[in-house]
Amino acid sequence: MTTSEQRHAIEELVYRSCLALDAKDWKGFLELCDPGFRYAITAFSPEIRKDMTWLDHDKDGFATLLGNLPKHNSDHSPITRHATVYTVDVDALGGEAKVISALQVFRTALDGGATELFAVGHLHDTVKLASGGPKLGARTVRLDTRLLGFGYHVPF
Amino acid sequence: MAKNAAEWAARPKFPASHYVDARIYSDPTIFEEEKEKLFKRCWIIACHESEIPNAYDYRLFSHPAGMPLIVVRGDDMKVRTFYNICPHRGNAILYDPAGNAKRMTCIFHQWSFDTRGACVDITRAEQGYQDRFGKQDAGLREVRTEVGFGGFVWVNVDDAGPTLKEFIGPALDMLEPYMQEPMEVFHFHKAVVNTNFKLWHDTNSEFYHDFLHYFNRITGMMQPGYFDRKYVGYPNGHASVGSMEIKYDAYEGSKQRAVGWPGLAPGGWILIDIFPGMTYNLRTSVLRMDTVVPLGPDTLIIEFRGLGLKSDTAEQRRQRVFDHNVIWGPFGRNLHEDLLGVHGQGIALRSGTDARWILQGRQENSTIHDEVGMRHYYAEWSQRMGRPAYDPFHEGKPARAVA
After folding, report:
1. Cβ neighbours of residue B60 under 8 Å, at least 6 residues apart?
2. Which residues of chain B are within 8 Å of residue A75 when distances are taken between CB atoms?
């Protein structure tokens, strides 16, 4: 059974994670994550009729990926994540919650500021519940959108 | 020193083979001619055999010349290709991009076709057509199809012309030893970019742009052997770039590839461009295939495939997927940079920008930063189009004779 306080804390964790990534506050995002954090982006391809993994990193690998960004040439248009927490299922021992959120990602052009929908999908989060507050144990971004134009370097 | 208008418009002081007129990347007339003279005449990769492993499996493909195609494996396991156009009222017969269909039935009036292209049912045929028209008159348009060169399914909408083997010639000889084991597609995605298809192929035809990629600078350009890599041109506009050893562990967060590829030296890399818009790119543990499908002179779909070996263990496949994603996935370090590059070219070269010339003048004994790969492509392009790429509208003479 999820208490309303638990649910509120978990929802806030998801929303804070989006805000931190939107702000490119990598340190702030990683502080929301458990040491065993794992991040993945997956999608199903109806063309080849297979599940695909587009990104898969442990916490160190994810931190390195983010840290290397300034060395690369990237599109600098900011993206805005909009998440809505749909379901929160806490396990029997109360140590972990499976959280599913809807995700929309918008991209805003630097020149003129036009905003377009960039991608939709779901966040499948595993949240570690500890006395110090909930932490992200794992996040899989399950994308419905697979056509991303010239792409993006920053994970969703 | 900056240039005035006349200086900007003046032809480059290179041989005519060493630059092209920028309008070949935006002119709609040229684009329509390219569909007729290039895409309708050449063998094009539609998919990989692993995408249709079973009898009745099909895969749809939008041919770069415009035709919607169905690639289907028949009951005899032979792969055939047909127009995805019902001969009755012109409806698309199949809608989903892939599937399995023992009978391909048009949803509109339920005309049905088998995997050999024969019409097997016309609803209420006798009542409507009496003996004037029947199933024998309603076959699908078949397109020449061959499976080869790594298990790719090649199609040619021209019923005449060379065989696939003749078209490829020796261009893939360098890669053939590494394509003996059955392969399997594990990654597919498309990118739509507002640019001309040739600009993507140009990017795949020159490595001077490694300056764009931090990853390639640190793992390749700064390593021994990089400047020894050579371009080789082949008949029909194809070109290859030989191997070197990539130092993957020079990039923080990357490491030497653990899985590798049968027969290929660790860290090896072979790239082969196939005219007019396909690229084999074997880099250590993954074969990447790019196929261009232009939608117009300034809009392009690129289909990206990543392939491993069919015999992969789960762990080997996981590692290949990881290796692929680091640089080539939709969130990979290099792919986004390459796409940004051609996106920017699409902005600067669109009609009306007064872009004039694209330089391809680097000569370094055909080694990695030589632009001979692009020159080789445009020699073939010019010959097939009947328009010199340096003067596509026959307006003037080059500053110097063709080298």
Report:
1. B68, B69, B70, B71, B84, B94, B96, B97, B98
2. 336, 340
| B interface with A, Cβ–Cβ below 8 Å | 51, 59, 96-99, 185-193, 212-215, 251-253, 321-322, 325, 329-331, 333, 335-337, 339-340, 342-343
pLDDT tens digits for range B80-103 = 999 999 999 999 999 999 999 999
Residue contact A153–B336, C-beta within 8 A: yes
**C-beta of residue B90 within 8 angstroms of C-beta of residue B100:** no
What is this structure's pTM? 0.96
CA distance A128 to chain B (A): 26
C-alpha count within 13 angstroms, C-beta hemisphere, residue B314: 0
Are A149 and B193 within 8 A, CB to CB?
yes
Q: What is the ipTM of this complex?
A: 0.96
CB contact under 8 A, A148 and B214: no
CATH hierarchy code of domain A4-143: 3.10.450.50
> Å from A19 to nearest chain B CA?
20
**How many C-beta atoms lie closer than 10 Å to residue B359's C-beta?**
12
State the Cα–Cα distance between residues A96 and A85, nearest whole angstrom: 16
CB contact under 8 A, A65 and B325: no
Please give the Cα distance from B345 to B67 (Å, whole number). Answer: 27
Tell me how far apart the alpha carbons of residues B383 and B377 are, in angstroms, rounded to a whole number.
10
CA atoms of B239 and B170, how far apart (whole Å): 10
Is the distance from CB of B297 to CB of B28 less than 8 angstroms? yes
Domain boundaries, chain A: 4-143
Q: What is the rounded CA–CA span in Å between residue B168 and residue B170?
A: 6
* CATH for the stretch B180-385: 3.90.380.10
Average pLDDT, whole number, for chain A? 96
| CB atoms B337 and A46 under 8 Å | no
Evaluate whether A6 touches A97 at the Cβ level (below 8 Å). Answer: yes
- pLDDT tens for residues A81-95? 999 999 999 999 999
For chain B, what percentages of helix, strand and coil (3-state, to nearest 5) are there? 30, 25, 45
Helix residue ranges, H only, B210-332? 214-216, 314-327
Query: Closest partner residue to B253 among A64, A75, A146, by Cβ?
Result: A64
Task: Tell me the C-alpha to C-alpha distance, in Å, between residue B101 and each of A69, A76, B97, B189.
Answer: 46, 45, 12, 23
Residue type, position B201, single letter: H
pLDDT in tens, B351-362: 999 999 999 999
Class of domain B44-156 as given by CATH: mainly beta
For B250-283, the pLDDT digits (tens) are 777 777 667 899 999 888 889 999 999 999 999 9
CB-nearest partner of A73 from B190, B329, B337? B337
